[in-house]
Each structure stands twice: as C-alpha cells, then as structure tokens.
Input
Amino acid sequence: MIANDIDSSDVLERVKTGVNAFDELVMGGLPRARTTVVGGTPGSGKTVFATQFLAHGITMSGENGVLVTFEEPPRDIEANMRGFGWNLASWRKEGRLAFVDASPPPNDELVIGDFDLTGLLARIQHSVRTVNARRVVLDSLTQLFDHFIADPRILRRELFHISTALKQSGLTVLMTAERNNEYGEITRHRLEEFVADNVVILRNVLHREKRRRTIEVLKMRGSHHAEGEAPFTLLESQGVVAVPLSSLRLEQQSSMVRVTSGNPAIDEMCGGGFFRDSVTLVSGATGTGKTLLVTNFLGGGVAAGERALLFGYEESKGQLFRNASGWGVDFAAMEAEGKLKVICLYPEAQSLPDHLLMIQRLVDEFQPNRIAIDSLSALERIAPDTGFREFLISLTSFIKKREIAGLCTATSKSLIGGESASEQHISTLTDSIILLRYIQEQETMHRGLIVLKMRGSEHAKEIRRFSIDDKGMQLGAPFREAPDVFTGDGGRYT
Amino acid sequence: MNLRKHMSAGAWRLEIIDVLASPELAEKAGILATPTLSYDHGPRPRRIVGDLSDARRVLEFLGIKPNGDA
Output
C-alpha cells in the first residue's frame, strides 16, 4: 500500500512540450494524463505554444495528436503554422494528426435550456482513436464559451466532464483560454478553477515601447515548478523559444586553464592570463581603449590557434576592421582563414531575448573558443531593467557552460571614473573586471589600467599607465601616487 | 415524438443520429452539443440546441407553420 501511495503521488511522468527552457521550468515537461490550461491575451502566442506541443509529440516523441479548433478552421491553422516549420497538412495525411473542426458553423443556432457536449467529446474520442493520439489540444475554450453564451455553468460542468474523460484515457491535454488583461483575472470565465491541473500564463507586455513576451507557470498540481516570468520569443521555423533564466543552476565547471588576453603585460597582471571558461568585463569611459582590448583579445586568441567570435553593437564591421589594422591586427586575414567571425548590428534591430538566442545560435554554429561583446551598454539601451539583468545572467552562464572565454565591454558615463548603474549589475556577474580610466597627472591626461577583480586568482593591484600606438596597447610603469579611480574625484591629483 | 405531431405527415423526414455510435457523422455535421436539432432545409440551415420540448418555439425558430399549414 505504501509503495502504491508513493507511485501515484510522487512520480508524474513528463511530456516534453518542445520548448526546452519551459520544460526545465516544470521539471521535465507537462505531467502525463493531466490537463494544462494556457492563458494569454490575444496575440500572446497560445496557439503557437499549443501547436508546438503537438508538433514535438509527432516529430520527436512518436506521440500523435488531436487538435480541436474552436476559432479558426483547420485549413487556416495549417497555413498559419507553416511559417514555424510545422507541416500540419502532411501529418494529417500521414495519420499522425487529426483535427476536430469546432469552428463556428455558418448557420443560425438557438440554445434553449440544458444540453451537454457529448457530441464534442464523441468527436474528440473518435479522432483520438483514428490516429492513436497521446496528446490533445483544445484551442481556445473562450470561443466555446462565446458560442454557448447562455449558461456558463453548463459549460463548466461539461468541460470538466470532457477533461476527466480524456485524462482517464491517458491523454495529456492542453487547453488555451483568453485573458482580458496581462495582470489580473487568470482567464475569462475563470476556466482554470474547475478544469486545470496546471496553469501556464503567456504574456505580451508593452514596456518602454518594446514588446516583452514572457511565460509563467502559475500552478502545477502535485509537483514543483520554477516561479516567475521567463522571457520567450517567437522564431521563424522554430516557434516558441523560451530563454532559460533563474532555472539555471550554478553548475558550470571551473577550469584552471589559462588563455591569453592578447596582451602579455595584462596576462602577467592577471596571474597568467584569463581563465578559459570565465567572463571578463572591461569598463571604461569612451575612448579609453575598450575596443582595443577586444581587438587584442580576439587577435591573441587566433594567433594561439583559437577561433574567435565578435558581436559589435556600436561600430560597423568596416570601422572595426579599420581600427584593428591601425593597431596591427589583421581582422580580414583572420576572417578569410575562417578563424574569426564578426557580427555587427544595431541593438534596436531586435529584442534582447532575440539577441541572446542569436548569440547562442552563432556560438553553436561557429564553435568559437572565445567570444567578445562590444558593448553591453549599447544592449542595455534597449532593455527594461529586469530584462537586462536576466539577459546577463543567461549570457554569462551560457558562455561558461560552453567553456569559452568571454570578454564584454561597458561604457562608464563619467570620463574620469565612477561606476554607472549598469556596471554594478554587470560586475557581480562577471569573473574578472578590468577598469580603464583617464587619470590626470600634473598638466597631462594619462590612461590607466587596473585589474579590479579576478575570481579564483591572484592579480596585480597597481594602476598601470598605458599608451596606445600602432602596435596596440603598451603598458608602462604604475602610477606612483594612486588617484582614486572610483569616486569620480579620482582625476584630481594634487 | 412531440415534434412529429405538429408537422404534417410525409412532408418531413426526421433522422435521429446517435453521436456515440456514429461520431464520424457528428464530425461531418459539426455537432458539438447534444441534443441538436439540425434543420437542413432552404439556403440557411438552422439548429436548435438543448430543450426541444417546446414544440411551438422550435417550429417558430425553424420557420415552420404548425399542423399541416406548412
């Protein structure tokens, strides 16, 4: 008896949705033979999410599906979903997918008194038998309610009955429902209360003139789930792609392998170079030499036989190549050799989650040993506060997981020092920090470099003077009387 | 059947379909609720869902004059 109790309550078999980061949020997938309600405002991606759940079953898990559509006729859905790379029509012809077309009929209809939805249930069960389905989607319940507007109580009773009958057949059921507001009542008609074992919310919020899509698991009966909103995006040929965030565990292995920063003097200051799977932040005011450090970092890597990837968000490819050759680094030759890849685009070209997914995709494609991002400040411009922090967490943990060396730059607002808000965000998430500062000495302005932090390693503590010439960065002697490089008063030297 | 009494014999054919026995017919006809009375006559088919016991109201909605006048 005890064993039985454990079996039934503890181990829920999971059904993968095909949205990897979402499956991670819910401990591996949706529980089998349960009903999940996916709520969202119009345009929040409910149908795409639901279709992806079926598509993944059909293409990856050998689980056929039934799609019950209350709004659009099957032909329209087949056309709309083709853009995500799902060929519903061919699956239908192969007998792996069946539609139940419950879109509104064109005829006049009168509803009097009590009725039941045996007709609908019989049709769903018939289709399930026909294709031997394991997954069922009902999209969306709100249209069904609008159809039988007279008495919502009857519909609740009937939906409960349908949900129970489908679950008893071992089917994993996903129902979508509309919401009126992004925050507030969970679904119109309060469907989730009587029909759902699990509730998932999709949001599409306008924040500072930007659309931000998120997915949140509100309730999972009998199991754990990660809390909070995770950003996602809708991608051509892929559908819903959620961005893994807080669910990420700090499980990256820390290696002690050192790689060159591209500048022997800085390697020495860092105790022998950067760690291979670490992220270094270079922070400094405009013109202090951040892009030069990036250039050295990439050039040094390629010279050591590595592959390097650069994302530029401030300058064009032409400018970056010209700068590099001015410092004695030949980007064009490195690119021709296939050792370097440079991507330049405006931060505004896409949303932050899209940027992240693009970086991840290119890392997967190009398989670099090191990656540079110039600059984070440019990316921060387009992001809401919380979104940027999430982006950074995802980015830094992704880089470490792949065991590649990362270098990011951030522009401080003040010319002579001080920390900007963004730097505070960034600095806690990076392993090493290098500060570049203008430092005034007598009547002359110098540039100074300091290794502020180096996780897991000794590093030089002094502020080193440096100059820039046609061979790049030349480090000189330390400043004898160190100015305060943090407060912004630091430039004053008396 | 109550409705039959109100409609002139021979002019109408009433077919009863059990959706549990013939779900494919329900699929073809697009039936969701039971009972549904589907009236496939004229350019605009009409349907009544639910309580069909009020024959007068049913016939009125379908546009049929009761008791052989149709």
